[in-house]
Design brief:
Layout (H helix, E strand, L loop, with lengths): L6 H9 L6 E5 L7 E7 L3 H14 L3 E7 L2 H11 L7 E4 L2 H9 L9 H4 L6 E2 L3 E14 L12 H10 L1 H4 L3 E4 L5 H10 L5 H11 L3 E3 L2 H9 L5 E6 H10 L3 E4 L5 E9 L7 H12 L1 H9 L3 E2 L18 E3 L12 H16 L10
Parallel strand pairs: 2-3, 2-4, 7-8, 7-9, 11-13
Antiparallel strand pairs: 1-3, 4-11, 5-6, 6-9, 6-10, 6-11, 6-12
Organism: Oceanisphaera arctica
Pfam family, one: SBP_bac_6
Keywords: Signal
């Protein structure tokens, strides 16, 4: 039987404020005739220099970037429907992006740059990868005390079982209900064997903290509120390591997930030609170099144009494939079942008491 809201709760939901997305505007260098609108789940500071260089070649184009997390981006675009102002959608939630394509929301685009992409890096000429993201575990070296940094998920699990008081309340990972990329990574982890399920149970027994963004988790790690961050995106990790020497990152020995950041042009895009030109610029040697200079992991080798899986991994790299295999877990009922099972795994065990130190 469906659960009904009381009148008081319904009223409360109506008056609660909705968190506004952060927006950035790059005015046109010349008199503006067009505004390119980008919905992006990539930290603006990583994209700003690339966008400014793009504007030098398009001086009459202003750019408005709407910064959202991966789930918010997907849901906002669908809610807006045909009236969406978005010209380009950029997200690392590969399954959500692929579902938009599969559901008919993407416009085909072909150019010399996109046609040169390896087959693994695009889908039906409607969805285009432009960076990689290694998925890492991050430690606050001070807070793990005398223990060596675990090199694998098995060693991490052993560490948590050996010293639970030290890590209770000090582990953070994605909230998969609120983060599209968090859901993608959890679903991929679940396909790698039984170890992930054991880790989830250990996280639950130690009162894991859930967050919607890698940057939020990195801030908690840097400030000493958290000791371990699981499944963080490598570009944001690299930026944090440069600022916080107490942090250490690990690409585990058992496997390192690698996802691709994807762009698509909606069928409703007001300026599809300009959006296509931006995709070409991101895929050009100059664009890839700018992305690399500003903390992202470029997709392509500068000379050969082949995929560039550049990460100092301790073991095998598991590239999340851009194929219809990503779609089944985006079925509404399958997604609910997966989230319910995941939530049960991290809440079934009793929480430990955090170490007062």
């Amino acid at each position: 039987m469906p659960r009904l809201l009381t009148p008081a709760l319904s009223l409360l939901l109506l008056v609660l404020p909705v968190q506004a997305a952060q927006e950035f505007l790059l005015p046109a260098p010349a008199d503006s005739q067009r505004q390119l609108v980008i919905y992006s789940a990539t930290d603006y500071r990583h994209l700003q220099p690339l966008l400014q260089h793009f504007q030098k070649d398009h001086p009459q184009l202003s750019i408005r970037l709407v910064d959202l997390n991966t789930r918010e981006l997907h849901d906002r675009f669908l809610t807006e429907g045909p009236d969406s102002p978005a010209d380009l959608l950029i997200s690392s939630a590969m399954d959500l992006q692929l579902k938009l394509v599969n559901d008919g929301h993407a416009r085909p685009y072909r150019s010399s740059h996109t046609l040169a992409l390896p087959s693994q890096a695009h889908w039906r000429h409607e969805l285009f990868a432009f960076t990689f993201e290694p998925v890492l575990t991050v430690f606050n070296r001070t807070l793990i005390g005398p223990h060596p940094v675990p090199r694998s998920r098995q060693e991490l699990l052993t560490l948590l079982r050996q010293d639970p008081a030290r890590f209770a309340g000090r582990i953070t990972t994605y909230d998969i209900a609120g983060s599209g990329v968090g859901y993608l990574l959890a679903s991929q982890d679940s396909q790698q064997g039984l170890m992930y399920g054991r880790l989830l149970e250990a996280f639950g027994s130690l009162a894991v903290h859930l967050d919607d963004t890698s940057n939020g988790m990195l801030e908690s790690l840097a400030q000493g509120r958290m000791a371990i961050g699981y499944n963080l995106l490598g570009s944001y990790v690299s930026s944090a390591l440069a600022r916080y020497p107490q942090l250490e990152a690990l690409a585990p020995e058992d496997y390192t997930l690698m996802l691709m950041r994807l762009a698509l042009i909606p069928t409703t895009a007001p300026h599809p030609a300009a959006a296509g030109e931006l995709i070409d610029f991101m895929l050009s040697a100059r664009g890839q170099a700018l992305l690399a200079q500003n903390g992202l992991h470029p997709l392509l080798e500068p000379d050969s144009g082949q995929l560039r899986l550049a990460v100092q991994a301790q073991g095998p790299i598991t590239l999340i494939p851009l194929t219809p295999a990503l779609l089944p877990l985006q079925d509404r009922f399958a997604r609910k079942h997966f989230i319910d099972t995941w939530t049960h795994s991290i809440t079934a065990a009793p929480s430990a008491t955090p170490d007062p130190e």
